[in-house]
Amino acid sequence: MRRNVLLSFLFLFAVFQFVDAQVRGTVNDQDGFAVADAEVTVRGTDATAVTDENGAFEIDAKVGDVLVVTDMLGATKDFSVASANMGTLSFGVEVLTEAVILGYGISESDEQKTGAYTTVKAEDIEKVGSVSFDQALQGQVAGVSIGASSGQPGANAPIFVRGITSLTGNTMPLVVVNGVPITTDDMSGIAAASNPLANIDPSTIESVTVLKDAVGTSLYGSRGANGVILVTLKKGARNSGKFMFNTEFGIGDVAFEKNDWLDAQGHVNYFATALGNAYGMTYDDTVAELGWDGVTNNNWRDAVRQNAVGSQKYVFNYSGGSENMRLFTSLSYNSQDGIARDSRFDRVSGYLGADWTVNDKLGINFDVSLSKAQQTGPTDGSSFSNPIFAGNLMSPTQAIYNTDGSYNLDLYFLNPEFNPLALQDKNKTLSDFYKALINIGGNYDITKDLNFETKFGVDYNFYDELLYWNPDFGDGNTGHPLGNGYGYASQRNFNTWNWSNALKYDKTFADVHNLTLTAGTEAIKYTYSYVMAERRGYPAGNTKPTLDNAANPSDASSGGADYSFVSYFGRMAYNFDGRYSVTGNIRRDGSSRFGANNKWGTFWGVGAAWNINREAFLSGSTVNELKLRGSYGTVGNGEIGNYASMNLYRAANGAYMGAPAGAITQLGNPELKWETTSQLNVGIDFGIFQNRLRATVDYYIKDVEDLLYTVPTNASSSGFTSYWTNDGEMRSRGIEATLTVVPVRTEDFEWSITGNYAYNDSEITNINGGNIAIRNGFKAWENGHNPTEFYTRLWAGVNQEDGTPLWYTDATRTETTGDVSQAAQAFTGKQALPVHTAGLSTSFNYKGFVLNSQFTYAGGHSVYDRWGFVYNSDGLYGQLNTREDWAEGAWTPENAGSATLPQVVYGGNNASSTASSRYLYDADHIRWRSAEIGYRFGKKILGEKLFLDNVYVYVRGYNLVVWTFDKDLWFDPEVGSNDADLVYGIERMGLYDMTQPNLRQFVFGVRLDF
């Protein structure tokens, strides 16, 4: 078969080698008028043409070439040649024929497009203001849902493209930066959450393209199951030289959080009620128990947080080049505080990118991005060292400091010496992240139509982290035999290298037939290594957190892992006269993660499109674009961990009969195979009135087969409780729509509006032989249910006769019980991943004034308050603070019949705070994500003598307002609501884990161009 493919390729090469192409078209300005005397050149050649009085031109070029149009004022714009008849090239408005780079040297124009993808430009990325570019996709790309695992700056952000494609594997899309696939996993060993994408400076990004359907993602085979995000870094412009300096200063606070926690008097009343109902204690007894002086009223929540959350950014870059060189270089510093007093993210980064045309045949490209980031911040979850958690729980009656100014370490708390301010000041969590992203490649024109491209890239990440617990109080003061205090140091290396080679044949014949054939190989190697050490026995009052200041080593280890991919791929694209396009991809992947019988997988995709607007019957109409397109194909998912198919053995596993012992630590399954996703996509694109109204609609169906998950074993004597299997199936359906309208466009004023909407829902169609597969206390999988649906006890409210809790006995919700042991876990009908997402943005440009704004919406999903049972405990932990609604809602003999909460009883009211749907909230919300107002001082104002070409002064706001639909939801539904990682799969999605809240920010900035 390989021989036949090669012979076919050589035959087509021989037939079409000597056929030339003459490309023609017209150039219009933003108002639709012809642009005369504009120069049209073909990049990399000597071909030149000048438009006539009608804006028309003819030039020697071929499909795939890039035309550079330069008007009389020197403004330039690039257009990719899609066919011999280019039609109208719109100068100054959004261009339909701009080339989109799909990877491996493959680019296509909008006319050639058969798949579903969306591109976000640099200016739209900058508007969001996040330390990582991925947040800019939220609300700008239909079908993409982005959460936030923490409000900690630099934290990882789970990304879902068209929903769920795996139950246990990694659900993150593949991210490719300038052709180099990079890691997206949270790789920190100590930090609460880290995001490798935060080590890429957003100001160096030219564009981000999200591939969503199979004809695009199948080009990346087994790594494209979750979608593909292509990041193109800036490379400068030829024959120019421009400098830019940008600085920003900002201040922020909490974006959304209901501040309805009790003050000192309120907490005394709550605790007194709980103690009175449990033991008959009086109010005065409670005051004495707490040691309250009647005056102290400390807001611990504010005390553990920063009074003013600041940020600053400095960016300096150069963009330019010569006739044969494009060059872009940048140096930047970004600093962002978090809400917690000890939370901060600092990044220094540098970038250099260059394209060099050596001669008319050879081109070389090179880029390197280097960065160092430091992240400090507290842990998440129910830990006393988490100031967000402890700050909520601490009774306002307790003093922060003693009268002598020392920390109060005799608190009325779950642990009296866990003063969260003291822990913030004395304990340390330091994480230094280093990233080097290096790419070098070249392309060589073997003939006019045959090109060879090679690209080698490295993504290197080094994490150097230190955790220190002081010896005097808190987690470090444990009376350990090796001494108090604890230090833990970790160094981790993550290295990915990628080498791809592609041979591309591109030919236009008879002026209307264009054929592009691509064949290539790719090899990927991923290695991970770590070394860690810990010590105990720090001296009392120690102020040096390094390990060498502790007396006794307590543990040390090192290890690593690796995996590799080898791939062969081919692509065919045919376009007839800019009207009809057909595309096909095939890829063969081999992975070290699977057993000998299933190491290889074959994935493919086909697509077709009809550009109806190019037909004669629409000639001269107001329709600028009308396209029907469809695609179908398969991709795989091999993100199951490096050794899931193997039996794993551990040599150092303790002792047996006085001798060192080993043990099997994992029951392997050599028959594990790739998860496979088949996707059908049908779409329509149209644009009218000089593209002042454009719309795109896509409908898709995704079927996943051979889902990987674990099931319980029957033989308990083996010592294994579960094993991996491959027999699940799931289906997702969705619709995506994007609409752009330009209501006003004049010489001085332009107003544009863009909106998008996406619907996605998934259903498990076959799993575990039709039986339920229980994963943990919050999620389960069963046929007919969404894979992210919550599975827990069903809360039925309060028994109005005696104030005890009630639960439903089963999913039918027909009978209730006051005995929690009779309350069966059941599916709630509530899921973690949004069903509906939307975005709306608008932009006004009047002369030098700029005003824009963006809103996002997510709905049809829920979030579970994982620690609600602690602070909404109905008195179980009455000594801890709670929220104000207990006073109106808790059952008393006086409000029997209308109470919404059980009676408050210290020590608990019949297990009322047991995990149940009581702590499940609707997460539907609208977010005013960003806004900007600014003014550009152009050359006309600045004057010709001033070295500045442009000065832009602006104010931006981020996360300005959050409107939630559930009145009881008190925390930001986006934080922690879409958390997923490789260890827990989708089980942790939708679980709020007492993370830092999202920031609301206001930024003042100045940009200078010269």
Short description:
Residues 1-21 form the signal peptide. The chain is mostly beta strands and 1010 residues long. It is built from eleven helices and 52 strands.
Number of domains: 2
**Percent helix:** under 10%
Give the CATH level 1 class of the largest domain.
Mainly Beta
Rounded to an integer in angstroms, the radius of gyration calculated over CA atoms is 31 Å
Protein described:
- The chain has 1010 residues and is mostly beta strands.
- It folds into two domains: 22-90, Immunoglobulin-like (Sandwich), CATH 2.60.40.4130; 264-922, Maltoporin, Chain A, CATH 2.40.170.
- The strands form twelve sheets. It has a 22-stranded antiparallel β-barrel.
- A hairpin with a 2-residue loop joins strand 8 and strand 9 (106-108).
- It is found in: Cell outer membrane.
Key attributes of the depicted protein:
47% strand; Immunoglobulin-like; 2 domains; 1010 residues; 22-stranded antiparallel β-barrel; 11 helices; 8% helix; Maltoporin, Chain A
